[in-house]
């Protein structure tokens, strides 16, 4: 139930068995079936969500009603509407399951308690946020400086696992491209090979 | 739009379990119904779908699986069965709201089997130390769910527990069921609430209320 969670945690900060037991008290195990929501916009994001098994996406819906995917999460990743989670204000993102999922949730109140009572959790969370920030910075830089074709190549290299599990139109949405543009790019790349 | 919550109802084939399931199926909830004998739960689901085809309700193979999927768990089994149920769901109910509806009545309905310094809810909390046990629905009869307004007054439903956020969430559940929620205090107030139902049962037998009776606080 918590296998991948503790493996990933230990990669960042090593825990003693009794520390694992202490941390376990604060975790919410949760199963979500494909297409079910973890969060719908306007609701407050009450949990940070670690994926033990399965896949989820976060997306926002614009004024025209079009969906834009902002993030994917697979096994070992964490997903949330961070600003809503931290500030406990209504979310702008929706998060739903792309496959049947097994999750480990940490509620905001459990998170707050752990931040105060367990220094190793604070370290874990800092590393998590730092990594996420670096990835975001990379993504922003790519959007500004690379051509769509280069971005597509970077994406396929960095996120191979997502690529194999998620339909093409969602990848297009994540990259900010129309599905038609994405398929033209793929066509050009395969001709060059 | 608020995120749909999943509620597991353990003992869903019983008087209370089926009444609670039926009334909550009107809300923005996904219901997972389980009991010992699966066949009986299917009948409850058929009944719900019959009156509300859009209801999001399913049977679950076992209480542990249902509780793993759930955000809220309702234990609608007899007090004597709660130890067994708690052992099955303990791991997956970690950090979750568990609603205790049990009244620990003795066999002749003239007293409670719990000691004066505890309650069914507190005993359940002891069995599930990392869950948020909330007392609710114990002062309402199963028949009240079909008729939550008696003699022109909306029946009150008392809630007790130690976690503010969980009390708020359960108040919403009680409202959806059609009752007027009143947060009575921390979990130890369950002792009073369980004794209130003992009194109501005794009065009901004495004066023939026919199980359609409830509490209402009169105030200005
Ligand atoms: N009836 C009321 O008006 C009322 C009012 C307030 C509170 N309550 C409380 O609500 C609870 C249920 O009462 P009830 O009148 O609904 O009783 P009931 O009709 O006898 O129903 C009991 C339910 O629990 C299930 N069950 C029994 N033992 C179990 C076990 N070991 N594991 C899993 N499930 C088990 C039964 O399943 P099977 O049918 O498959 O055996 C059934 O679904 C009690 O704690 C009672 O004090 C009742």
UniProtKB/TrEMBL annotation, chain A:
Pfam families membership: cNMP_binding (PF00027)
Q: Which Gene3D superfamilies match?
A: Jelly Rolls
Cited InterPro entries: cNMP-bd_dom (IPR000595), cNMP-bd_dom_sf (IPR018490), RmlC-like_jellyroll (IPR014710)
Matches recorded under CDD domains: CAP_ED
Note the superkingdom of the native organism: Bacteria
Positions of the Cyclic nucleotide-binding domain: 30-115
Q: Which SUPFAM superfamilies match?
A: cAMP-binding domain-like
User: What name does this protein carry?
Assistant: Crp/Fnr family transcriptional regulator
- Organism per entry: Paradesertivirga mongoliensis
UniProtKB/TrEMBL annotation, chain B:
Pfam families per the record? Answer: F420_oxidored (PF03807)
Query: Which keywords accompany this UniProt record?
Result: Oxidoreductase
Q: Which SUPFAM superfamilies match?
A: NAD(P)-binding Rossmann-fold domains
Q: Which domain of life does the UniProt lineage start with?
A: Bacteria
The Pyrroline-5-carboxylate reductase catalytic N-terminal domain covers 6-104
Q: What Gene3D superfamilies does UniProt report for this protein, alphabetically?
A: NAD(P)-binding Rossmann-like Domain (3.40.50.720)
* Protein name (record): NADPH-dependent F420 reductase
Organism of origin: Paradesertivirga mongoliensis
